[in-house]
Amino acid sequence: MSDEESRLLLLVDRDTAQARLVGSIAARAGWRTQSVPDGITALAYLASDEMVQPDALLLDGLVAREDSCKLIGDLRGAAPQVPILFLTQSASPLLAVEAMRAGATDYLMKPIGSERLLYALESSVVSDVRRDELAPLAEKIEAPLDFDMMIGSAPEFRSALARAAKAARGHGPILVAGEPGTGKELLARAMRSASPRAKSAFLVLHTAGMSAGNLESALYGHEKGAFPGAFERRTGILQEADGGTLLIDDIERLPLSLQARLAHTIATGEAKPMGANHSFRLDVRILATSSEDPVMMASHGVLDPTLGEALAACTIGLPPLRERHGDVPSLARHFLALIGEQPGLRRLGVTDEALCLLESYQWPGNLRQLQAVLFRAAIFCDRDALTVQDFPQLNDLVGETIAAPTPPQAGGVTLFGPDGHLRTLEEIEADVIRLAIGHYRGRMSEVARRLGIGRSTLYRKLGDLGIDNAA
């Protein structure tokens, strides 16, 4: 293997344009890329003593098509130590299961995003966890997109859901901030589903991997001849989402000049395609995701101040999974239920000891990584329930720090504090109210009715308990 400063990626892909894109993305993290067009050439490369052996291999499923799993097995046999990343445009989880059982380390969907590829590459070479259950996977397991599917009882998380449920009913821009894998896009989609625009157009712009020029054209569109290569007119995604909702993923990736332009569009409802002499009016609700709070990003020059001010009016922060360890058991059971519905898999339980192990890990990849770990374990489990033995690398990493069982809960509300003593009645009451607001999607009359108190009493308690911002 090569050293860390010159990691080598062997790309098996006959699409030259995609090969250039992958090479460009990988280069950002210090990777060199060697491309080969087919499986035969790749196997010859791996068998050669004269070639530098790769640190990872990326296989495009179009190279071998229906024989992809056989090729993965051949590649695994030729290079047992090399992580194999499988790239496909199929949305079928069954293919992921078959690829994993054939020897693939990870599974990526087209169109490939730069953040996702870099995360997969980095995960493939991290110390002792290469090729193990901690790599990302299972990115396309679908779930109903509503607030009832947002699992967790941690107070900060329930407060975020309560604010999101209330904000969903409005029309202004919303920013969901949080680390990668915390469920930002899922929450944004749930808000759209609970909004007055639920039946109108909903479009998503993924900014990762797009150039500044392409981002501007994607947002606003362009006229024929607006720039070299603009051979025909293009309608922007803002115009396509007119009357509905547009989700901009990783909004901080937009160039500052484009951010300022977007802020103007939010304020005025006007948009002008590139190269056009006219503008048009829009009615589009903007939802966005980012890795950080907009005020902080604006102060560091990452976000345009005007756009940051517009988004700061309604920003919902999602906590990382390491700050809501008590939610891991319920999340694990939820993910296992979804995984069990996928073709080629079955419904599995999980032992208390395994749940304690899962709770003890810090989960740098958050919900996405937890789901991936469970998906990988479910693929190879031949029992009715997952045990500690199904997570060998995780067990090695956590060692003696396995957490004690989660304290008793009532309806998703924690009764005991970290010291083992009962929490105060005020703390428990605040959690119950947050839980009710999230469960009933911010419908305060329903919350008050279900709690058996008057609406005015509810609002007074929100103020007294310091959770008025969650209402």
Automatic annotation (TrEMBL):
Keyword Transcription: yes
Protein name in UniProt: DNA-binding transcriptional regulator NtrC
Keyword Repressor attached: yes
Annotated compartments: Cytoplasm
GO MF: ATP binding; sequence-specific DNA binding
Entries under InterPro entries matching the protein: AAA+_ATPase, AAA_lid_NorR, CheY-like_superfamily, Homeodomain-like_sf, HTH_Fis, P-loop_NTPase, Sig_transdc_resp-reg_receiver, Sigma_54_int
UniProt-listed GO biological process terms: phosphorelay signal transduction system; regulation of DNA-templated transcription
Source organism per UniProt: Croceicoccus naphthovorans
UniProt-listed PANTHER family: DNA-BINDING TRANSCRIPTIONAL REGULATOR NTRC, TRANSCRIPTIONAL REGULATORY PROTEIN
Record function comment: Member of the two-component regulatory system NtrB/NtrC, which controls expression of the nitrogen-regulated (ntr) genes in response to nitrogen limitation. Phosphorylated NtrC binds directly to DNA and stimulates the formation of open promoter-sigma54-RNA polymerase complexes.
PROSITE patterns per record: RESPONSE_REGULATORY (PS50110), SIGMA54_INTERACT_3 (PS00688), SIGMA54_INTERACT_4 (PS50045)
A cellular-component GO term for this protein: cytoplasm
Keywords, in A-Z order: Activator, ATP-binding, Cytoplasm, DNA-binding, Nitrogen fixation, Nucleotide-binding, Phosphoprotein, Repressor, Transcription, Transcription regulation, Two-component regulatory system
